[in-house]
Specification:
CATH topology of the largest domain: Endonuclease I-creI
Order of helices and strands: HHEEHEEHHEEHEEHHHHH
Number of strands: 8
Radius of gyration: 36 Å
CATH architecture of the largest domain: Roll
Largest sheet: 4 strands, antiparallel
Structural class: alpha+beta
Bound molecules: zinc ion
Length: 318
């Protein structure tokens, strides 16, 4: 089971207690699924098709309980190209015009006598706005696995419907972004916080919590990885600098002899060479008299400068 199908399964079980929400959700399901086909002379074929049986059963139940219509559920088997089984709820043809009229979707003079989007009164209350969005996701939504990335989208069949859906989400301060893709008007969210808010708005509370758990786990492991990388690069930096200093000290000893160095530099060279892994601040404590970190680093720089001059054959003044 994918994360998206878990979400759809949960949304299909969200209870509907008010007729206002049932009407809004059915309206959204019909429009988003593109399930209203004009048959001429006031006749319409009205269907709701979905990949999950639970989605179709939900609308069968709402249709029966709130509109008094008993639909027919059938299974559509895929073709050679698309082998996926789909489920379809069909409204009996004689009931279709009455249903569309009840849902305020008929409008004289409009193309095929149908409104492209419902009137505002369909989504007057915030419960109905949520219901509208829930069906939009069930019918034309997609969601990526949060383990892999954050993306949720709704692919509306028309621009007008996409704008209407975006308007409902905006009422809850969720601002869907839009794009045109393969003649679908796609609305999407990419920020984890927005996706989480959107899922809880639709009523997928369990999925939202699962999403949050994955998100927190990913953030913690990213932080730990960053910390580990930083620590090991610091260790490398200490080791590399110390290795270079010790190499320089050995070179001075071989070319010049450490006993030729002034006492302060000679002591520094011994302390560094005998404590190859020690940070600068601690090296200073071993000096007599003790030396601060900046004093240590100044003397080590001086030693490196001497080694450099010896390598280049320059005169070394001590
Ligand atoms: Zn409502």
């Amino acid at each position: 089971m994918s994360f998206a199908s878990d979400v759809r399964g949960e949304l299909a079980r969200v209870p509907v207690s008010d007729a206002c929400c049932a009407r809004s959700e059915l309206t959204s399901a019909l429009l988003c699924a593109g399930g209203i086909a004009w048959r001429g002379r006031g006749r319409y074929a009205v269907t709701i098709t979905a990949a999950e049986a639970s989605t179709v059963r939900r609308y069968f139940g709402l249709l029966k309980q709130f509109m008094g219509i008993v639909g027919q559920i059938r299974t559509l088997t895929g073709d050679a190209l698309n082998n996926q089984v789909r489920y379809q709820l069909a409204v009996p043809e004689e009931e279709a015009p009455g249903l569309l009229n009840d849902l305020n979707l008929l409008e004289e003079g409009a193309l095929f006598g149908l409104r492209p989007v419902p009137p505002e009164e369909t989504v007057r209350f915030s419960c109905c706005k949520k219901a509208f969005l829930r069906a939009a996701f069930l019918m034309c939504g997609a969601l990526s696995d949060p383990e892999k990335g954050y993306h949720i989208e709704l692919a509306a069949p028309t621009e007008a419907l996409a704008a209407f859906i975006a308007g409902q989400a905006a009422a809850f301060d969720i601002h869907l972004r839009s794009a045109l893709r393969k003649s679908k008007y796609v609305l999407y969210l990419k920020r984890a916080e927005d996706i989480s808010d959107f899922m809880s708005l639709l009523g997928a509370m369990n999925a939202m919590m699962a999403f949050e758990n994955i998100r927190v786990k990913k953030e913690v492991s990213n932080r730990v990885n960053r910390q580990l990388n930083c620590d090991s690069s610091n260790i490398n930096r200490v080791m590399n600098a110390a290795e270079a200093q010790i190499r320089d000290i050995r070179y001075i000893d071989a070319e010049l002899g450490l006993d030729k160095l002034p006492p302060g530099l000679r002591q520094m060279a011994f302390v560094r060479a005998n404590n190859p892994e020690m940070p600068l601040g601690e090296l200073g404590d071993l000096m007599d008299p003790p030396l601060g970190k900046s004093g240590v680093s100044a003397r080590l720089r001086k030693l490196s400068g001497i080694a450099e001059k010896l390598r280049c054959g320059d005169e070394v003044k001590l």
